Amino acid sequence: MATYGIPLLVLAATGSAALTGLAFALEWIPRVAAFTVVGTVVDRHGTARVFRAACLARALAVLAAAGVLAALDAGSPAVTVTVMLLAASTGLLTEFSHVAAETIGGAASRSAGAQAHRVQSVLLGIDQSAVLAGPLVAGLLLEHGGPTAMLGTLAAFSLLAAALGSGERNTPPSATVAKGGLRTGWATLRSLPALAWLVGGLMVSNTAIAVLQAAMPVIVITELRYSSADAGLIWSAAAVASLLAITAVRRAIDRWGLWPVGAAAAVLAAGATLAVSQADAYHSYLLLIAVLMAGEGGLTVVLRTLRSHLIPADVFGSTLSLTILLLLLPFPVAGLLVAALPPSQLGHAVTAAALLQAAGLATAFIRLRTLPAPPTPVP
């Protein structure tokens, strides 16, 4: 709801495509910055404690913004400042809770041994179920209930997450990660060429996805004249496709192995993005982005499985933080790009990003063909 709903809120509150792109950047810049410290914080203070604190803080920030927006006149400069600050604060706090949850997931995968991809596909299915509901719910609430309804619901989910997380046992701190931070993560990533190549390819692929996410509210609402609910529906439909792909990928990896399945998912994602760059109708965007995110779902299962196999437990937090940091770097850049370009030029930006994605994924998987996919996790 936060990732997709807040840019919609900015567009509804300001009516500006440039400010919508800027808000997308402001939502992601703190997320990227957080990864310089978030792995260390999680491993120093424990996963459950960090998760609860981040969820509670996000709920308070959202409730405060809802109260301010209810008291202000629509279109005032104070409204613009409020929604921009909301984008930045939710982006920052979300990454603390995200890394805490991913660290717990990594531990579960290591316990599963050679069946780690099955654990990761279930965890990713949980994530995608939220992505299925979140954008559509945010769009509908914003359209029919206004900012207060959307933000109130987002705050309620944050409080519920904190309450559910209160039953989780806090993990002990890791002295290695607490001392090393991202430097330890970088050294670990450099020592794992298979993981490094895959992260590099997905970093390039995420550039295309980031441009699409940042541009889609402007394309759908400003250019195609559809509603905010229709914009949210695109990403909810994409989540359905991703859920189906995750189930298929789990079985495909059992049969054909990690690299062949990853390469097929890369071809699907790159082909769909190239087709999206030529689309000019709402239903075309709806279908093609669903295909794109199905491919991305497969790639994400491969990445998460490889991370749980290769990264040693005592440096998992810092290395996880670094890999997520690299994968998120394109998102604030995409937001700034959308803010700088006129809406009529967004199609050219999508085309360039699609070509870059195809080249990056092809290079990564050609290189990965020479590297073995490990069958068992590193202790």
Number of strands: 0
Helical coverage, percent range: over 70%
Count of runs of 4 or more consecutive helical residues:
15
Poorly predicted regions are 175-179, 375-379
Most strands sheet: none
How big a fraction of the residues is strand?
under 5%
Helix/strand/pairing category: mainly alpha
Shape: globular
Euclidean distance between termini CA atoms = 37 Å
Q: Can you give the mean pLDDT?
A: 84
Listing every helix as H and every strand as E from the N terminus to the C terminus, the arrangement reads HHHHHHHHHHHHHHH
Radius of gyration (CA) equals 20 Å
Would you kindly provide a written description of the structure presented here, covering whatever features stand out?
The chain has 379 residues and is mainly alpha-helical. It is built from 15 helices and no strands. It has helices spanning 2-14, 17-34, 38-45, 47-71, 77-112, 116-144, 146-165, 175-190, 193-223, 228-256, 258-276, 282-310, 316-328, 330-340, 346-368. The relative contact order is 0.17.
What would you say about this model in short?
The chain is an all-alpha fold and 379 residues long. The protein is built from 15 helices and no strands.
Keywords, separated by commas or semicolons:
379 residues, mainly alpha, disordered C terminus
List the helices and strands and how they pair.
Layout: H1 2-14, H2 17-34, H3 38-45, H4 47-71, H5 77-112, H6 116-144, H7 146-165, H8 175-190, H9 193-223, H10 228-256, H11 258-276, H12 282-310, H13 316-328, H14 330-340, H15 346-368
Helix pairs in contact: 1-2, 1-5, 1-6, 1-9, 1-10, 2-5, 2-9, 2-13, 2-14, 3-8, 3-13, 4-5, 4-7, 5-6, 5-12, 5-13, 6-7, 6-10, 6-12, 8-13, 9-10, 9-12, 9-13, 9-14, 9-15, 10-11, 10-12, 11-12, 11-15
